[in-house]
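Query structure, 186 tokens:
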């Protein structure tokens, strides 16, 4: 059991029969009232966000979440297929469930897939990935010193802004949290 006074960002709790993740929280103590916690929580199944106040004496169950290492096999339309590396079981994850995570998935790479009752809730990515530029305009000679960025498309279809000196076929490191260019990779 988890008390609402133990809330922290990223904590996962069962609320109204569903798993929720704490997005933000604030402990509130008022002069004559009882202390409580204001929390912004995201439903891990539906994706909706609520703001709610809980007394510090309220407690919550821990959801039965399992993180498995799974290999991303392929995508077919809006479905992404992962395989458990130990049992060889395959699961299909909808593009809506993955959100922007899908732009960083590379075939045959392993990722941590968070499961609840056999259904995938999310895929944990590394902080950065290395992707190949497939489309971009050629840079103008002499502009490599400036801080001007140009649009480019990487092998997964993600559109990103890169410096002018980057050309098609170059490998670039992309931050998976912000979707921004970090550096050119070897």
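Result returned for the query:
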């Amino acid at each position: 059991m988890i008390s609402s006074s133990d809330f922290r960002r990223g904590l996962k709790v069962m609320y109204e029969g569903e798993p929720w993740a704490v997005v933000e929280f604030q402990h509130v103590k008022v002069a004559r009232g009882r202390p409580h916690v204001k929390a912004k929580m995201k439903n891990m199944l539906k994706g909706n966000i609520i703001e709610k106040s809980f007394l510090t004496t309220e407690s919550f169950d821990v959801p039965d979440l399992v993180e498995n290492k799974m290999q991303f096999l392929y995508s077919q339309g809006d479905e992404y297929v992962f395989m458990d590396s130990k049992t060889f079981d395959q699961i299909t994850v909808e593009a809506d469930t993955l959100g922007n995570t899908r732009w960083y998935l590379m075939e045959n790479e392993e990722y941590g897939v968070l499961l609840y009752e056999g259904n995938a809730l999310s895929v944990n990515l590394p902080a950065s990935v290395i992707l190949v530029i497939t489309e971009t305009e050629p840079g103008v000679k002499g502009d490599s010193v400036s801080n001007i960025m140009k649009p480019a498309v990487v092998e997964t279809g993600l559109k990103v802004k890169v410096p002018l000196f980057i050309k098609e076929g170059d490998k670039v490191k992309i931050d998976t949290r912000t979707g921004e260019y970090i550096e050119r990779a070897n």
